[in-house]
Write a structure and sequence with these properties.
By secondary structure, the chain is mainly α. The protein contains 15 helices and two strands. It is globular and about 65 Å long. The N and C termini lie far apart (about 55 Å).
């Protein structure tokens, strides 16, 4: 009985810290920034999730959060994502007609998940001389679905796990700003329809979606509900069929491309060079 009670309440520090960080972040609230680069209007919004991450990094840097608490908190990512997906799915219902009218386009756009592999793998191998971390960081946009895949196949303590978590943190810190600027630039070109930009906003990350969608909705306020529905549908599909594309297509392609680029050899040579340099002095 004692062991059962201990198991039930052993995570109390993690939950308490989570509640405190959420309250602090919500008090800060959304901070929107608008500016212009040349003649292009730009805007992005900093969301509470970013503040929580930064505060957590600071606390971890000062050793105010121990490794045991970090390991305890890791499984809760998947639980949180389920609530998020349910919320996003609820937004589709009231606007299901324009979503269905888009037909297979919403599903076919998931092929775009292969883009990060061919773009980022050569950079990871040839520029940064990364080892197997390159596979975890390059096979997807490294959001919750990517973490789940790598965690299940390799474990988050593996080099692949280090890669996907590093990309996840990087994406959380600068992804919202990048997506907002990218959406503003694409919007200013006039090449893409607002519906296409709404679909593209659903990348699999709530914060990135909100950042990418904001300038599009601002430019077409009369289509706000419709564009939000496209983005939400794309977001949910990314978590659904995008998961299988990443697992059965993108990840094997990433492993193949890592071998083609000679990732293991280049990483080993780079590590040997570092070791020799350290030995000399």
């Amino acid at each position: 009985m004692t062991e059962t009670k201990k198991g039930l309440f052993s995570d109390w520090k993690v939950h308490l810290l989570c509640i405190v960080l959420v309250i602090v972040a919500e008090f800060i609230g959304n901070k929107r920034f608008a500016f212009e680069i040349g003649s292009f209007p730009m805007s992005f919004t900093l969301l509470p999730m970013l503040y929580v991450l930064i505060i957590g990094l600071i606390l971890g840097g000062f050793k105010l959060i121990d490794q045991e608490s970090m390991k305890t908190a890791s499984p809760y990512i998947g639980i949180s994502v389920m609530w998020l997906i349910a919320k996003m799915g609820a937004q589709i219902g009231p606007n299901i007609e324009p979503v269905l009218a888009a037909g297979p386009i919403l599903i076919l756009q998931e092929i775009g998940n292969l883009g990060p592999v061919f773009f980022s793998m050569p950079v990871a191998v040839y520029v940064f001389k990364m080892g197997r971390q390159a596979v975890g960081a390059s096979f997807s946009i490294s959001r919750e679905g990517g973490i789940a895949i790598i965690g299940s196949l390799y474990g988050l303590d593996s080099p692949e796990g280090q890669g996907v978590m590093g990309a996840y943190i990087t994406g959380t810190v600068i992804g919202t700003i990048f997506n907002a600027i990218m959406a503003s630039v694409l919007l200013a070109t006039g090449v893409f329809s607002p519906e296409a930009l709404g679909m593209a906003a659903g990348t699999g990350s709530a914060s990135m979606m909100a950042a990418a969608l904001a300038p599009v909705v601002e430019a077409f306020p009369h289509m706000a509900d419709e564009l939000s529905a496209y983005a939400a549908a794309s977001q949910v599909l990314t978590a659904f069929d995008g998961l299988y594309i990443n697992l059965f297509v993108a990840l094997p392609v990433a492993n193949w491309l890592y071998k083609v680029c000679g990732g293991a050899e280049k990483h080993a040579a780079n590590e040997a060079k570092k070791a020799a340099k350290k030995a000399r002095g």
